[in-house]
Design goal:
This protein is α/β, with parallel strands linked by helices and 396 residues long. 38% of the residues lie in helices and 18% in strands. It has 12 helices and 11 strands. Helix 1 (8-22) packs antiparallel against helix 2, helix 2 (28-46) runs parallel beside helix 11 and helix 3 packs across helix 11 (351-369). The longest helix has 23 residues, at 146-168. The protein is globular, with a radius of gyration of 21 Å. The relative contact order is 0.14.
Length: 396
Amino acid sequence: MPRATLSLRSLSLLALALSLQACSTLDPHEQAMRASRDRADAVARSGYQPSEQVLSDSVLQQWPVKGHKTAVALMLPNHGGALPVVVYLPGLGESAEAGILWRQAWAKAGYAVLSVQPLDEDVQAWSSPLARDFEFKALARERHAPAALRERLDRLAAVLDEARRRAREGDPLCARMDFSRMAVAGYDLGAQAAMALGGEHAVGNAPDALSAQFRGAVVLSPVVLPDQKQRERYDVMARPVLSISGPRDVDPTGLLSTELRGEPFALMPAGDKFELMLRDADHAALSGRPEVERASRSQSRGAGGRRGRRGAGGSNPDPANDPSLDDGEDAPRNGRRNARWTPEPMVRSTAEDVAVITSVSVAFLDASLRERAQARRWLDEQVPGWLHGLGTWRTR
């Protein structure tokens, strides 16, 4: 249950004052990081409090799926059975181990989290020929195409079949999962699949059969192409959906429009629909990657320049994580040329956004999979006042 002793604004101001006093001898970078963490702690303390706060165990396994080895990351509470399941689908170029902040929060709240990037082509996107030629928009168009989505969902269905087979045979992790209570969560490319599993479908086609297995969907950075604004695409999405985006959620490949990310919320049938628009969170902040890791990757890649990313032994460019070029050449940005990728700042104050997403998504899962009345009341009644300017909240 949320705590109401002090307002979020009061807690935030107090935490900030104490932080600045305590770290006056630190350098500006450390001061900013500590102040951000303290504000985030205040957000978390005043937000939704799940009834379970447990330790979790994590393991990465290679499963044989349709003749291929598929990496599956499992994160479960370290005790208990009949655990509701969250299937997490990462973004373009990410592996099964992505989204660590979200997966940890959900496992800590008592959920079994199964994370998988179903297709190798999606994992290896940033080492593809299109990426090496800096054709990021063409790469995104290829990976978001209907045929790729169909293949992705087919492989996911096979992964879930394998998980159930392991559960029947007494696998110590899969046997603790309750596959009758599943939600899907996806970021970026994974958000496209999550929407399909929530019931979105091409006009004239039926929803994917796999969607019937899921009770709800968490959509981080919704994917809406220009020709996908028809109400008929969303007309059977009657189950709960939580959509998370914001005005700074800019697609670094240039394929997707930020302004269209809110369209599905307005087009889906009313009832159990929630939308969180964060004021300051950019696209990378929604990935669930730790802030320190993102800042470190940005610094190291910015220092290496294009040659460091593309030369022998270097890693390949990943515009979703570090959209920077330093050699003065033109590069695509939001579909335009003659514009340079700008490097990520050394410090991004996204800790509060992480705390907000954690609280809201855990409450959504508790309401959708565990049918907890206090979680639903918090979503319906208390989120707008709790946000205090960090974002906007809508329900329908």
